[in-house]
Amino acid sequence: MKKILLLGSGELGKEFAISAQRLGCDIIACDSYPNAPAMQVADCFKVFDMLDPNKLKDAVKEFNPDFIVPEIEAIRTQELLKLEEQGFNIVPSARAVNLTMNRDEIRNRATALGIRTAKYEYASNIKELIAATQKIGFPCIVKPVMSSSGKGQTKLYGENNVENAWDEAARNMRGDRAKVIVEEFIVFNSEITLLTVKQKKGETLFCSPIGHTQSEGDYIESWQPFDINEDLLNQAQNISKVITDDLGGYGIFGVEFFVLENEVIFSELSPRPHDTGMVTMFTQNLNEFDLHLRALLELPIPNILLLRKGYSTVIKAGDDMPKNSKYEIKGLEKALLINNVDVRIFGKSKAWPGRRLGVILSSEKENGEAAKKFISIVKSK
Ligand SMILES: Nc1ncnc2c1ncn2[C@@H]1O[C@H](COP(=O)(O)OP(=O)(O)OP(=O)(O)O)[C@@H](O)[C@H]1O
Ligand SMILES: [Mg+2]
User: What is the pLDDT of residues 310-336, one digit of tens each?
Assistant: First the structure.
């Protein structure tokens, strides 16, 4: 039985743990708080600060896992590089995890590989930020180099708000580097995630592209298949292959692109299942979690089939939800009366404004949205 140490126990980790349980793996779910979603379906769990290198090392030594699977970015990734050198198996690879947690490092890799991205500049203080925004022009987007789910991002339309953008980024940046990236704002037709599976014994496989929309940099809805012409799809697949080959290792990657009339522009990538890929729980013969697991266990993936089309939309706590509240999700009895609708409730014990608590999976946007209208999140005692 293979032992997997899961670093991060959110909703994506939970589904990965379920896939791994189904193939008989032993899962140790880790996070900084108890009763996190993946811990509810794991064999055992450990609560500790994964940014603390000693605690991370101690957990690895305690369990001596066959695989270490990071589920989030907030991990002391330098420690993972050392653990890999000692022979531990980091999924997909310590290099991939280390480079992708920093927007500047993965962006520098993309540039070195000749991959087109939005124009960008870096800044480490307000003065540099002013200069960077002038070079890039307006509108532009300012993002901390270490953050996720749109945290700390500001879209700037002119020179006025540059200081606020710096403060917003500084308040939300993870890690100890005060650094932001300023990106040219790309006016795209749509954005996609291309789930890319890198295997040890077999070629790189691609899922059918997933369209998605984001609000303030955070995932709102996704759907699969996404209507794309062959030329654009080839471009996206080629770029995904180049960058995932460079990062190395085995597993699934969620490669994000902006889609324009005649080209796709690489944005960023996750070296793990992607939140927009939750739709594959409804659509594919093997969902993104099954694929990640098979790739790391070096089990065969004879084909990836899109069995039916699908749509997913997130259930989030409203802005009026007080911080750290207990809550109840109401309306399932009505939402689930609608044909071809399914729901995943993540099982997070506390809510706060905007916290993602579940996802609705459906055959189309219409029935998914209709189901969502019945769902409400209310504070409980
Ligand atoms: N240069 C850009 N031009 C236009 N839109 C952008 C740009 N950069 C980011 N966005 C928008 O903001 C979203 C989030 O940006 P990005 O993926 O870089 O950040 P993130 O915090 O890692 O988000 P997530 O963790 O949800 O993927 C994008 O999906 C896109 O909708
Ligand atoms: Mg993103």
Answer: 999 999 999 999 999 999 999 999 999
Residues in CB range of 91: below 8 A, 6 or more apart? 67, 68, 69, 70, 249, 250, 251, 272, 292, 296
Distance of CA 331 to the CA centre of its chain: 28
Pairing of strands 140-144, 180-184: antiparallel
Superfamily the domain 310-380 falls into: Aldehyde oxidase/xanthine dehydrogenase, a/b hammerhead (3.90.1170.50)
Q: Which of 72, 120, 136, 141 is the best mutation target for the ligand 1 pocket, counting ligand atoms within 8 Å of the beta carbon and taking the most?
A: 141
Segments of the chain with pLDDT less than 50: none
Task: Give residue-wise pLDDT tens across range 264-305.
Answer: 999 999 999 999 999 999 999 999 999 999 999 999 999 999
119-184 has which CATH code? 3.30.1490.20
| CATH number 3.40.50.11810 is the correct assignment for the domain at 190-297 | no
3-state helix, strand, coil in the chain (%, to 5): 35, 30, 35
pLDDT number for residue 381: 87
Q: Quick one: which atom of ligand 1 is closest to the CA of 147?
A: 21
- Nearest ligand to the CA of 186 is 1
Distance from residue 274's CA to the centre of ligand 2 (Å):
9
Instruction: Check pocket membership of 141 for ligand 1, CB cut-off 6 A.
Output: yes
Domain 3-90 has CATH 3.40.50.20: yes
pTM for this model (two decimals): 0.97
**Domain ranges within the chain, ordered by starting residue:** 3-90, 119-184, 190-297, 310-380
Q: Which of the residues are catalytic?
A: 148, 150, 256, 268, 275-276, 356
